[in-house]
Amino acid sequence: MNSSLTRRIFASRFASLLSVLGITAAMAPTDGIAQSASAADANVIRKLNAEGKPGTAKDVIMPVIVHNGLIYVSGQGAHDSRDQKEWTIESHTTMVMDKVKKMVEIGGGSMDTMLQASVFLVKIEHWDAMHKVFATYFPHGGPARTTVAVAALPGDSLVEINCIATVTRK
């Protein structure tokens, strides 16, 4: 019989014996345990509210989901309580981008780790003004972005933005 085959059979039988005796955890290298723990942490889905606290069963939509090293930020709108005559696309974009930035940071990222953004405008004519404000949040280059015009947005917002970013800290 081949000597390498004999060693494999011995090793598998020896491992089975250790497993039965409950000794495998003591024999496992600590690096493997750390890697398994971090892999398990990456697979956990963390649902966070706007304050960074875990969501409850009553929360239907979570503003921040963290999973597998990615941060998913749900659509953020301006929800401006001022008189509509005072609304501008610049002020709404600033309000929304400040919210997006806060949500990304709650998830453990930064604006530099944003990978993708979807922008929804009630008027496509607002694109230039929105883009000027949007660009100020990305001095090192922005994410991939899609911008579309829609018929209306919740809360009478002129713009809504959602995004995906990467986790850089816990």
Low-pLDDT stretches:
23-31
Mean pLDDT: 84
End-to-end CA span: 53 Å
Query: Which sheet architecture does the biggest sheet show?
Result: 6 strands, mixed
Number of helices: 5
Number of strands: 6
3D structure, described in words:
This protein has helices at 3-21, 24-27, 30-43, 89-107, 127-135; strands at residues 46-48, 64-67, 70-77, 114-121, 144-149, 159-166. The N and C termini lie far apart (53 Å). Helices cover 38% and strands 22% of the residues. The longest helix has 19 residues, at 3-21. The chain is globular and about 80 Å long. Mean pLDDT is 84; it is low at 23-31. It is of the alpha+beta class.
Concise account of the structure shown:
The protein is α+β, with helices and mostly antiparallel strands. Helices cover 38% and strands 22% of the residues.
